[in-house]
Amino acid sequence: MSDFRFTIHDDDGAARAGVFLTPHGRVDTPAFMAVGTLATVKALDPDDLRALGAQMILGNAYHLHLRPGDDVVREMGGLHAFMAWDGPILTDSGGFQVFSLEGLRTVSEDGVEFRSHLDGSLRAFTPESVMRIERNLGADVIMQFDHVIPGQSDEATARDASERSLRWLARCADEVARWRSDTDEPRSPQALFPIVQGGIHESLRRAAARSVRDSGDWVGYGIGGLSVGEAKPDMYRILDVVDGELPRDRPRYLMGVGFPEDLVEGVRRGVDLFDCVAPTRMGRNGAAFTRDGRLNIKRSEFRVDKRPLDEDCDCAACRRFSRAYIRHLFTADEILGLRLLSLHNVHFLVRLMRDARDANRGGTIDAWSEEWLARYLSRPVTSE
Amino acid sequence: MSDFRFTIHDDDGAARAGVFLTPHGRVDTPAFMAVGTLATVKALDPDDLRALGAQMILGNAYHLHLRPGDDVVREMGGLHAFMAWDGPILTDSGGFQVFSLEGLRTVSEDGVEFRSHLDGSLRAFTPESVMRIERNLGADVIMQFDHVIPGQSDEATARDASERSLRWLARCADEVARWRSDTDEPRSPQALFPIVQGGIHESLRRAAARSVRDSGDWVGYGIGGLSVGEAKPDMYRILDVVDGELPRDRPRYLMGVGFPEDLVEGVRRGVDLFDCVAPTRMGRNGAAFTRDGRLNIKRSEFRVDKRPLDEDCDCAACRRFSRAYIRHLFTADEILGLRLLSLHNVHFLVRLMRDARDANRGGTIDAWSEEWLARYLSRPVTSE
């Protein structure tokens, strides 16, 4: 555990600003992690990510297992070497992906059988096999294999999945413990994060958080099963509950959540790490975050607009290019457009978390949040 | 004319190394110009181009006229400002594009009527209208509107097109002369390049080169209608003929030619500037130039290949990424793969021309060419 350290520098109510140290360097928290599903943050170069201030990124065990194969990544020296990213990396466990394969998977106590979305081949994930995949990938933080359910699931369904996730956590931890005693092949240390499940049911979330907390001395904690179809107030309410139960001195990672307003609300509720495909996926669809809300760059109103995407932004797109130019790139299906909007949107979230850290330091997180949200939500989102 | 200057530093037979000065900076020749069809070199960022040493790039009048419209580019401050490229730019005249619209265009002495490949709308290009389009785009070098024919055309067809191109050159020059007397709107000076046509017929090429040469004090000369279906020996033979007729003290631009072996052969025959979509188009298809010939990165033999694309290359792809990683990007349809191979291929040609300059300086262009071609052509091209 000594290869990881989390230090809180500033407390401001539930919110906090800190530093999460990993074997591949530091992460100033709160932080947004860009998603590199297939060992690349879509449309971006690792140099783009470094230049915009990204510190930690994410890879997907499910996708990398299928392509190029976690065995290939291992043979190439692990994910850091393979994708030329020497900063911290976190891999998810594929739980979210296999449970999204509605109709193509069967859950049992042992694990999940599923068919690949690529070729329909039959595959199986167990807590043990997923740990081996994540070991091959070699990320700094590896997530447990968990049972993910839809956001609106009833209490019985949520309890079943939450309790199964706890049993699977124990099996993940046992598998990881076996490696630690394996001295034949020294590898970079990896921190296993448990995941708190429980749907939108407060008592289940409270029980899950306590069980996870009491089951080991974890480096950090995942909060899963949110932003999967439930209403936003439900998500915020659950975050408040979980915040009260998890140890204050460890980082909390809210999985798959990444709209600007959700990041702000999450920070206020003690979340330290976020990830989401939203900035890159929306960017490839022509949507840009701005301080005044989202805009759709394809709209004809931007045809000769000389302004940058966001006049408050200093990213590599806004420093150089007009809305008119980026609109033209989208109209003409030019690849550079996909890169510029992806870059802008990731920069927007990375900078948002930097601003949140500053507000925390100044003890003004509530006032800052209110002002930020009021401006961001003040204008109607342009149609997309 | 004083805004442009061409200085030859080293002569080595027909080959020469020099500097072409333009209002937007210098171009060390011989040089390869990457093609930015729609105001972007496909899949690349202007910063990529600067970093790999590109000095001059190209835009297409036909494509930019249709999207976003040359009026939009003008309103945005011209092509340099619009695409954030402050180095020299050349625009072609659309001649090649409209004559490629087989069945969708009608040629008359006045110009060409054609249907847009985008929406079928009826359009017309005349020498005068094309000059106005290229004025709106604002490139440093603008090409005359010419009549392009297939590479295997018979002598009568080639004579007709060549003579029409000469008459259109006079109309282009008249149109440009009108702007020069228009003092109401000062703009960056633009150099009009004539284009030598004549197919693969030596007497026609000789006559065209002489007529062009005698018709004005041109800043530089385009050589058109090559690499359009004729055999390579025919192209080289015609280059020898044209080299003997054009003034030695002006740059010669061989239009649309850009395979590595053609660049080497062109340099030996007194060509100074080249352009081609090959490096980016082939890159997007997974083909990479290497010193030992082309390779197709999608092949399974590269699955765990830790070597860079080309072990002799120092581009931003080869410095950081393995063949295995780039193969994975292509297998997974990731955008970064398109960028890395485009970047590598453009870098390859830019560096090839830098090496040719060095060989010229050393007076070893023939030995260098033979050695370079022998190695490049020694291995069979991998199937694509």
What does this entry look like structurally?
Helices cover 41% and strands 18% of the residues of chain A. Chain A has 14 helices and 17 strands. Chain A has helices at 46-52, 61-66, 70-75, 79-83, 95-100, 127-137, 155-180, 202-214, 232-245, 260-268, 278-284, 323-331, 335-361, 365-376; strands at 5-12, 15-22, 25-29, 31-35, 57-60, 89-92, 105-107, 112-115, 122-125, 141-143, 191-193, 195-196, 221-223, 252-254, 273-276, 287-290, 293-296. Chain A has a 9-stranded parallel beta sheet. A 3-stranded antiparallel beta sheet of chain A has the order 1-2-3. In chain A, strand 7 and strand 8 form a beta hairpin. The A-B interface holds A 38-40, 42-47, 67-68, 72, 75-76, 82-84, 303-304, 306, 316, 320-322, 324-325, 327-329, 331-332, 334-336, 338-339 and B 38-40, 42-47, 67-68, 72, 75-76, 82-84, 303-304, 306, 316, 320-322, 324-325, 327-329, 331-332, 334-336, 338-339.
Task: Lay out the secondary structure.
The structure is a homodimer of 384-residue chains.
Chain A: E1 5-12, E2 15-22, E3 25-29, E4 31-35, H1 46-52, E5 57-60, H2 61-66, H3 70-75, H4 79-83, E6 89-92, H5 95-100, E7 105-107, E8 112-115, E9 122-125, H6 127-137, E10 141-143, H7 155-180, E11 191-193, E12 195-196, H8 202-214, E13 221-223, H9 232-245, E14 252-254, H10 260-268, E15 273-276, H11 278-284, E16 287-290, E17 293-296, H12 323-331, H13 335-361, H14 365-376
Parallel strand pairs in A: 4-5, 4-15, 5-6, 6-10, 10-11, 12-13, 13-14, 14-15
Antiparallel strand pairs in A: 1-2, 2-3, 7-8, 8-9, 16-17
Helix pairs in contact in A: 6-7, 7-8, 8-9, 10-13, 10-14, 11-13, 12-13, 13-14
